[in-house]
Design a protein that fits this description.
55% of the residues lie in helices and 10% in strands. By secondary structure, it is mainly alpha-helical. It has four domains: 113 residues, no CATH class; 41 residues, no CATH class; 100 residues, Immunoglobulin-like (Sandwich), CATH 2.60.40; 132 residues. The strands form two sheets. A three-stranded antiparallel beta sheet has the order 3-4-5. Helix 4 crosses helix 5, helix 10 packs across helix 11 and helix 14 runs antiparallel to helix 15. The two termini are 60 Å apart.
């Protein structure tokens, strides 16, 4: 019930905030990609909540996150993307909480329906109202408050409330038709679509005794199924036989029929196999009765032979005793799980940012040696650093990460930013040691002048290419490690394919 109430309240709150935030931040969110922000339509809700509480993003964790976002999107947009990050987390958390609450509400509704959809209330004299006829039996939780003087204790019980009796005979017959199912008559057969043994056909059943009805059985082919449930199977090699089994339910002159469709399978097993199979079903019934018995003695006797299967012997071996405590899931457990998942999201979600930064740096590391090689060729040809930089940035057709950063630096210089400062910004955005070293060489050359510029760049270029080779070697080794598990699975599959025919041959030879 608690899950349902919270689900409705949070859903209504989201609808209210959605209406209040409709149209807000439209211009800010217009340029966002739906691929990077799948919850783009819900972001106004998160941004509205942040603005309402005047959130400042002043925690140490968010300060570190701001630096990472500055590397990805630039220092000027870091605060904007930080707000988007928090707003996105809020929206995702709300969806997860609603999902858990919705599932908890469904479980509560299912429990309510299974309880008979009745309102059994303990009245002042300690009575419980039984379910109406047709709603089925219900299990009700009741607490007994026992007190003596100042001492008071509470004991919990589950009480079975049986449905009220029918008002007339016709209602009783209709209810009997509903309760007379395949499970009552299939006996030791797995189902009525594969009948290989006798059926359990009775004039009444324990679950129908309170209705006081009588059942007469008729078969569409008495040669195969007799009214007492005896079944004669088709001979081996014959086709399966379709039989209609008719149950005539009557009470005080009122009658109603229910038809069961059966398929009799031909005899395909040997007499020993049929006996073992039938013994298994009889043993299942015995174990079911044993587990539900009181077990008042110190020892429990297990059967060594069966009444209906003479000649079948049973031997017993000890097994591990397993104790399982079934803990019912409550609304509080769903709420606690939702809160834990929400807290985890605020940290796990940011792992995607770290992944993007790693991919960005890897891309720059792979492209930078090629850029440096072109720059050396142009400088050796007589171009200065600025013109060579512009030519490389403009000649590239693909907008890779490094090319985008090169063009940003070019635009900064043309926009009036000092050349030294523009190069420093380039090093900050790339955040790589080799790029920082390259910018240091350029700045030193601009400030003091150096005849060894080409030689220094050539040495740096050689180091960058060696670094790229080591990185490629590292990623190749990682790829080999990741392929280890799929290769092991393939090996297991091949071994199974090769060994299966051998095992089949050995089993056939043993028989």
């Amino acid at each position: 019930m608690l899950c349902l109430i919270l689900f409705i309240l949070i859903l209504l709150a989201n609808l209210y905030i959605g209406l209040r935030s409709k149209g807000l931040h439209k211009d800010e969110l217009a340029g966002l990609s739906s691929k990077d922000y799948p919850l783009k339509g819900m972001l106004p809700i998160g941004l509205w909540l942040l603005n309402s509480i005047n959130y400042k993003h002043s925690t140490a964790y968010e300060s570190k996150l701001r630096l990472k976002l500055a590397e990805l999107h630039g220092k000027g947009k870091a605060n904007f993307y930080l707000r988007l990050n928090v707003a996105n987390k809020i929206c995702l958390s709300v969806l997860i909480i609603l999902m858990f609450l919705f599932y908890g509400s469904l479980c509560w509704i299912q429990d309510f329906i299974e309880a008979g959809a009745i309102s059994s209330v303990v009245v002042s004299d300690g009575r419980l109202s039984r379910p109406e006829f047709g709603n089925g039996n219900a299990i009700v939780d009741a607490n007994a408050i026992v007190s003596y003087g100042k001492e008071e204790r509470i004991f919990s019980y589950k009480i079975l409330l049986k449905e009220k009796p029918p008002k007339n005979d016709l209602e009783a017959i209709t209810r009997a038709c509903e309760l007379l199912t395949e499970g009552l008559i299939k006996n030791k057969n797995l189902n009525l679509s594969s009948v290989y043994g006798n059926l359990l056909l009775k004039s009444t059943y324990p679950s129908l005794k309170h209705l006081d009805v009588n059942i007469d059985w008729h078969s569409s082919d008495i040669e195969y199924i007799k009214p007492d449930g005896t079944v004669s199977l088709p001979l081996k090699g014959q086709a399966s036989k379709n039989i209609a089994l008719i149950a005539v339910i009557s009470k005080n002159g009122f009658k109603k029929e229910k038809v069961f469709e059966l398929i009799l399978k031909p005899q395909e097993l040997t007499g020993e196999e049929l006996s073992i199979d039938a013994a298994k079903h009889e043993l299942d019934s015995y174990m079911k009765e044993l587990n539900s018995s009181a077990q008042s003695e110190d020892f429990v006797a297990l059967p060594t032979d069966l009444q209906e299967n003479n000649g079948v012997s049973i031997a017993w071996a000890s097994g591990a005793a397993v104790k399982r405590d079934l803990v019912s899931e409550t609304g509080i457990s769903y709420i606690a799980l939702a809160v834990m998942c929400t807290l985890a999201i605020f940290f796990i979600y940011d792992s995607e940012i770290n992944k993007k930064i790693s991919m960005r740096r890897r891309s720059i590391q792979c492209e930078f040696p090629g850029f440096l090689t072109k720059l050396l060729l142009l400088v050796n040809a007589g171009m200065n650093i600025g013109r060579a930089w512009d030519k490389i940035a403009l000649d590239q057709k693909e907008d890779s990460i490094l090319v985008v950063e090169l063009r940003k630096t070019m635009l900064e210089i043309k926009g009036g930013i000092p050349e030294l400062q523009a190069y420093e910004h380039f090093a900050q955005r790339c955040a790589l040691p080799e790029v920082s070293k390259f910018v240091s060489i350029l700045i030193q050359n601009i400030r003091k002048g150096s005849s060894e510029l080409v030689q220094l760049l050539r040495i740096l270029n050689r180091e960058c290419w060696e670094n790229r080779k080591s990185i490629s070697r590292k990623y190749g080794e990682e790829a080999s490690t990741k392929l280890l598990l799929p290769m092991m699975l393939m090996l297991v599959g091949i071994l199974i394919i090769v060994a299966t025919p051998a095992f089949i041959s050995i089993n056939s030879f043993g028989r």
